[in-house]
Amino acid sequence: RTSTQALAHTRRGAAAMAMTRHLSVLALFALGMQAAAGQTVEWVAGTSLAGTTFKTYMGEQVCIDLKIKGPQDQDLDVVKATVEKPGVYPYAAGNAAAAVFAYPHDEINFPASGALTAKVDFSSASYRTVDRQYCFTPEPGEECVYTVCFEGQLIANSGVPTGVVTATASCHRIEVHNSVLKLGGAGHKAEVASLSNLITPKDGLTVSAWVYPECDASPVARNESILVFGSNRNIATPYGADTGLDIRNAIMWQEDKNNQGSFFYYDCYSGAFFTTARFCCGSWHFVSFSIGEDNAGTLYVDGVGEDKLAVANSLEKLVTESVEFTTASRPDNGLDADDQGYFRLGESFKGYLDEVHVYNRGLSAPEVSSLASNRRPVGTVASLTMRPGNSTTPTLTGGAATIDMPYPVMVPCVMGMSHSVGPSDGSCPTEVFGWGFTDSVNPKVSFGGVEVRATYVNATTLTVETPGHISPRFVDVLASNDGVSFTDTAKVGKAAKHLYMESALYLTGQGNSGASADFVCLDLPTRAVTFGAWVCPKCGPPVPDAPPPPAAAAGR
């Protein structure tokens, strides 16, 4: 062979060897893929049942158990599934858990403070298991409802996910609730033993509570005790029985036959001090009194006494009131060792109470104002959150009970709307769906920072008319129970959107479709007329027939 022929033969041989090596690599890769395809990751016993609803409260931890099994020679892990797979998860059509994840709970949202933690893993000769827990302790701003989903995942020895995951995602619902005290009238009460003994008379006193007086159909006016520091003092003396002053400090409610009411402070030493009769029943109110060391006291209702606009540039005002008084009356604190003082809630009150706080000092007006929205006040001698196991838990008698119910300091979350698209000029009635709504004096919804008053329907629904906005654009929709603190989308893991669009008439060009406005002819004073329009002709083939209605499509 010539040198040229030899060189060509060498090159052909090298190319053949390279092709052989390339085919070998492909073959090995294919074999690896076949091996991976034969490997599975599956949920095993010990995993919380998919579709389960977990219930928790502020500051109380809830955990979801997640356990998977896979090949012994591969790493495994449980990860969050953060993007929905329609028809697969959060639920598949016809799945028993479908109702749990129906709209507006069909999108995944994780709370900001939740976390996956490792438990004890196990390996055998043929398989290995990985045990994880997802735990969540609600913080302020996270009192929402969550749809959380997880997948088991196979990880190659290189640390890269192989794409092999559990056949189904494990999806669950977490609901964050709030407890309130329900009182049904005569005989219903709650009492905290020896709370009076924690009050030093010379240091002043402040008591606050969220109060919801129920309306009744009775035309008869009534007085009701909301909370009372009292005394059962009955000491024999040479001059007769010393019964002391039985009502030492109290907040009370008086309702007229028209369901308008007054809150008032009362004690047997100084008497009664009323607000005007302009507060409504059937709604939450923040009520407190503060008495200083100098015996100067103030009763506050829904603020510190200055009415303010419910919404900027509106004529509607929020009613607040403060009433000043003077009293030397203090709780019977048992310094004489008789232990006859008591603190009772709702002895004749019909309605709901929550977040009762007691201080052994007088608070200033700004401190009272900030207390209205504080989930975790400090410096109290007692804080009643109406949850079992709380450091100060009242004893319930006569039918009093705790129930789940939102109250105004809860920050609600928005999950969706009945109309997610609306005209840019606003005035579109829509329902806002969410969690933690309550019947407060100032519920609001914010559309891209433009706030409007809302109407309470129930704990998961508000109604509202959309405000006008610049179009077209998406805006975040947020809600508030107190008109101040709105949904924190970062904390609840979801931002509900509303799309503002210009209104336009769409014509298909088929049949006699169109619009009529003959009435404009009545406004023409002469025969002269000029008119015009913005028109966007659609190019291309004819418009296809309209799809069948959803009911007909579902029946196919």
Walk me through this protein's architecture:
The chain is 9% helix and 38% strand. The chain contains four helices and 39 strands. Strands 11, 13, 21, 22, 25, 27, 28 and 30 form an eight-stranded antiparallel beta sheet that branches. Strands 12, 14, 17, 18, 19, 20, 26 and 29 form an eight-stranded antiparallel beta sheet that branches. Strands 1, 3, 5, 6 and 7 form a five-stranded antiparallel beta sheet that branches. It is mostly beta strands. The longest helix has 36 residues, at 3-38.
Task: Write a concise synopsis of the structure shown.
This protein is 9% helix and 38% strand. The protein has 556 residues and is mainly β.
Layout of helices and strands:
Layout: H1 3-38, E1 42-43, E2 53-57, E3 62-71, E4 75-80, E5 115-118, E6 122-123, E7 127-136, E8 145-155, E9 161-165, E10 170-177, E11 179-184, E12 189-191, E13 205-213, E14 222-231, E15 235-237, E16 240-242, E17 247-255, E18 260-267, E19 271-274, E20 279-280, E21 285-291, E22 296-301, E23 308-309, E24 317-318, E25 321-326, E26 341-345, E27 350-359, H2 365-371, E28 382-384, E29 395-397, E30 401-404, E31 413-417, E32 421-423, E33 429-435, E34 444-447, E35 450-453, E36 455-458, E37 461-465, E38 473-480, H3 489-492, E39 497-501, H4 550-554
Parallel strand pairs: 2-10, 32-39
Antiparallel strand pairs: 1-3, 3-7, 4-8, 5-7, 6-7, 8-9, 8-10, 11-27, 11-30, 12-26, 12-29, 13-21, 13-27, 14-17, 14-26, 15-16, 17-18, 18-19, 18-20, 21-22, 22-25, 23-24, 27-28, 31-33, 33-37, 34-35, 34-38, 36-37, 38-39
